[in-house]
Design brief:
Layout: E1 4-7, E2 13-17, E3 22-23, H1 30-40, E4 50-56, H2 62-73, E5 77-84, H3 90-95, H4 98-101, H5 108-116, E6 122-126, E7 129-135, E8 147-152, H6 166-175, E9 176-184, H7 189-197, E10 200-206, E11 213-219
Parallel strand pairs: 4-5, 4-8, 5-7, 8-9
Antiparallel strand pairs: 1-2, 2-3, 6-7, 9-11, 10-11
């Protein structure tokens, strides 16, 4: 499938899929969306010194990189598992401008290493941040009570409805620990109902720029 690098409204890059009219991140601002949906509505809400995170759609590594930067500021230990069936290329990685847009030049190597580390092996990015990238289809996930937080960042339901079903959210419910939360940019009623049907308590929250709402689900 054809892919191209585009600049989003906040100046940060993302990958655009012309045939789907779909982006890896919001065209209204990749970094703004990542902070709003996954950090402010998810990571910052977990009041623990050690956090285990599952990302559904590792993609460009933006969510993982921002989480690394913020975990250092907050002295949190993170075990980060990123699931991705179709990793981006090294050429695409080089064209992403997240390091400069985040004023994170001192961590340029960290961003590069996130993409260079082998798949299906745990890697210590720092003593407090361990990354495990799993090259895996989402339907193959079978973790049980392993995570405090899930970043659900799959492609939209209009293009991949099979990723937003009760079957997938049942896997998420099993993978997360009690009181753990799942956050996603999506706010479709069918998605909210699928989450509720498997046992999540679901909240509608103010969405990032360009979206009216988003969802946060809690395992109670």
């Amino acid at each position: 499938m054809e892919r191209e690098i585009i600049i989003t409204s906040d100046g940060s890059t993302t990958i655009h899929l012309p045939s789907w009219n779909e982006q890896y991140h919001s065209k209204h601002g990749a970094i703004q969306e990542a902070y709003h949906v996954f950090l402010h509505s998810g990571f910052f809400k977990i009041d623990r010194s050690s956090i285990s995170i599952l990302e559904i759609g590792f993609g460009t590594g933006l969510n993982a990189f921002i989480t690394f930067l913020e975990s250092r500021k907050r002295n949190k230990k993170v075990k980060y598992v990123g699931v991705e069936a179709y990793p981006i290329s090294s050429d695409e990685v080089q064209k992403l401008n997240y390091v400069s847009e985040l004023n994170a030049k001192a961590n340029q190597t960290i961003f590069e290493v996130m993409h260079q580390t082998p798949w299906d092996e745990e890697y210590e990015l720092s003593k407090d941040f361990h990354l495990f990238k799993r090259k895996q289809f989402f339907q193959e996930i079978n973790d049980v009570a392993a995570f405090d937080l899930i970043y659900f960042d799959a492609f939209g339901a209009q293009n991949q409805p099979e990723l937003w079903t009760e079957e997938i959210f049942e896997k998420m419910f099993q993978a997360i620990r009690p009181d753990g939360i799942l956050v996603t940019y999506c706010a479709k009623g069918s998605v909210r109902r699928a989450m509720q049907s498997v046992g999540f308590m679901v909240e509608r929250l103010l969405g990032p720029p360009g979206k009216r709402e988003m969802l946060r689900a809690t395992k109670i």
